[in-house]
Amino acid sequence: MMNEHQAEGTGKGILGKAKEAVGPLTGNEDQVAEGRANQAEGNVQQGLGGVQQGVANALGRPGGQEQAARAINSSARPRRAWAPSKRAPRSCAAGIASDTRRGDSKA
To answer: In terms of pTM, does the model score above 0.70?
Structure first.
């Protein structure tokens, strides 16, 4: 059985394939790119639906899909406040001093 994310992802994939096919016929390369983007978005959404379905199956309960959706959505949120590092960031560019605490920049 398909869940909501899988169904929407399938729809976006079909829409993307249609746009990609119609684009060359109309000479509209932007429509081809948009169709490919819609297909990629649909694939991601189908994958999310698959994960949600897997969690629901693992829970093995009726209504597990709603509980799985809450679990997946809540795991995307940070669990604690982020605190910046006290150390100055290191630069990857050659010739630039990264220790800004002393103020001796070579740039």
So the answer is: no
